[in-house]
Amino acid sequence: MADIVYICSAKQETGVKKRVFISAVAVPLACAFATAQTPAEDVPDTAGIYGERADSLEAAVFVSSQNGNYLSKGKPIRTEVISSAGLRKMACCTLAESFENSASVTVGYSDAVTGARQIRLLGLSGVYTQMLDETRPVMRGLSAPFGLSYIPGQWLESIQIAKGAASVTGGVESITGQINLEHRKPTDEKPLFLNVAVMSDTKIDFNAVSSLQMGRKWSTVILGHVSGNIRNSDHNGDGYMDDPKMLQFNFANRWLYYADNGVQVRFGVRAIQDRRSGGQEGYDRDAFMRMMQTQDWSNPQPWGSEIYNRSINGYLKVGIPLKPDNSSNIAVVADYTYYDMDSWFGATRYLAGQHSSYLNFLYQDEINEHHRLTFGLGGMYDRYSEDFLRVLAGFPAPVVQGTGVPAVTGLANAGVFGEYTFTYGDRLTAVAGIRTDWYSMVDDGKSHLKFSPRVTVKYSPSDNIVIRLNGGRGLRYATPLIDNIGVFSTGKEFKGDYDSHTLEDAWIFGGNFTFYLPFGASSDTYLSLDYFRTSFSQQMVVDYEYYEHNPDDPTATQIWFYNLDGRRSFTDTYQIDFNVEPVERFTVTATFRYTNARIELAGNEFPVERPMTSRFKGVLNLQYATSLNKWIFDVTASVNGPSRVYAFMRDRTDADGDLLYRNGYTPVYPLLYAQVTRRFKGVDIYVGGENLTNFRQKDVVIGAVKDNGVVSGRQRTFDASAVWGPLMGVKIYAGVRFNLWKKS
To answer: What is the pLDDT of residues 407-447, one digit of tens each?
Structure first.
């Protein structure tokens, strides 16, 4: 149900009064750290530096509640919040499993082999959504395909999903929006949190978090995670594992130093190691490579993949208040990540490394209660080293792509920005920002300056109505092979600019209307309507259907990579949300989203429906809690709309000879999730089920051949990337959460 939270009206040294929300057990502890969960719309904050001020002197405390999923009423941009209560509604082993209650974000598999998960926001791939770890950009480049699997849900306090063009202060890579992750804090009053979950597919997930305060100035949080599966399964009998074998280790340590003069220093490190193998049992990458090079099919080899990922990250955030009330401050944010990926897919080798650096300087001044200015400069640098070699079946000789020699590419951007915020009470907030960035490499191979304006307006004509409008420009470098990692799980030849890094350029405009209704057991009853349009002026296109409109290639054995170059690509997204608590402790949330995604592929004279993109999704969540939240019952049902399949899938049939995709579209399918939680003092025990409708995509692996009893992916028509639905059937899980609270 809802988390119990405390609303503290805190009088600080400056005499400024504010209302803040913080999850807590003991009221004195809650107000001792009264600003630990201060919403961004209530206090000026530079880059998330001042999220945990501890300078409250007096506090009046009132009890309220916080829903698991809700729309933030105060934020200028349309923001959906998944709170700690919402994260507990699912098994939430990873971030990828935390969005099932949201129709805004759709999560699916990139292919049927690697286990890589991808999100869609506003009908577009997750690479167009900027992922933030407490305002620091993360999951970029090589880490994007598996990044969702490296964020344990139990490490998080909340997730904020912001649609549209966000602030320019963190860069303009956010095209469809931003997803910001708030981790458990060093100032948390839980010296120890433990969680263990076991799935029916033998996956085991273990998390440990410890927050420690060492005096008045220093605090730290240690986070650990281990997960893996004991065995694999093949429920559909196609010879390929439904889910890869995997073992992941994940460790993080975050520190906070808070000085008497208000200076805050945050820093931390994180390390990840992940090994996974998918496809078929018995895969031997060297033997498969030799078979493809010699074209000797007398000793067929199983097709599979092996992936070994390692990552190390360090960051530093320094905030210096220039005035006692923090209305003026400066901040520095620095971040460095090294990511190493050794991967093999059949007869393809992809060994890559990425050094990523991020630096941001900001100055913020709240002139008065109506006007706030932010200025700064910052940039990013990515250095890629890619060793790519791919051997494909061919006649009279095999087709070899790549050189097998590491290629080094450096991508950089640096810019200056300014942002003005006008606030008129609770009625009006307007944010206008502009950013000028130098990009080291654009389409012509030269460096260029790019101007990116962004505007956001929030207007409340009454206490019950909130209207939001925003728009602006987004820019990001494409990494074609990694952005579309599913292409490795095919036997097709890569054609075109698959080794280039296009600077993708898009404009997004949209708005939100929210009406708060005067009924229900809480004040959080609302009806919300959204519309957003994303239009690209430049984009990297990955075309599985080039042969459809190219008479020189009458087969479906190639994947083309090329730039949009004047052709049209746009997406319109409509969404409606309704939330109500009809009676106390019973919450109903209903959401429906419709997407019209179009792209003009090379050779076409008009935009066609973007393939493998669901037209609609509807979600209904029901949750009931008994008195004092001793028992919590949660059910989530969703219906997923059709998507246009690739042309080479249209005529495929099932075992009975019936068409799998009538009219070239996937079927509409339902999903059902349920969970029951029993809460004791300091201990939660929960059991649940995922995909209880047991719906699974048929014909997931296309074009594999069977030689002497061995299913091999040596054919040029082999494709395990055409995934549009669930790969796993019913999954049952059970888990225990343990909280040790600090004694007051």
So the answer is: 999 999 999 999 999 999 889 999 999 999 999 988 777 88
Q: Count up the domains in the chain and report the number.
A: 1
Which domain covers residue 196, as residue numbers? 3-740
Residue 28 is predicted with a pLDDT of: 29
The residue with tokens 């810019």 is 415
Other Cβ atoms within 10 Å of 85 Cβ, number: 26
The helix/strand/coil state of 303 is: coil
- Spatial distance between the Cα atoms of 180 and 190, rounded to a whole number of angstroms: 23
Give the C-alpha separation, 573 to 532, whole Å: 5
257-258-263-267 Cα dihedral, nearest 10 degrees = 20
DSSP 187: T
Q: Taken in order 8, 38, 266, 182, is the CA torsion positive or negative?
A: positive
Contact between residue 253 and residue 269 where contact means Cβ atoms under 8 Å apart: yes
CATH of the domain at 653: 2.40.170.20
Q: Specify the DSSP class assigned to residue 742.
A: P
Amino acid letter for position 88: R
Residue 723 tokens, joined: 């995934």
Q: Which of 84, 89, 97, 94 lies closest to 193, judged by CA?
A: 84
End-to-end CA distance of the chain: 26
Answering whether pTM is above 0.90, one says no
CB 76 within 8 A of CB 280: no
CB 377 within 8 A of CB 412: no
Burial of 105 (0-12, 13-18, 19+ CB in 10 A): buried
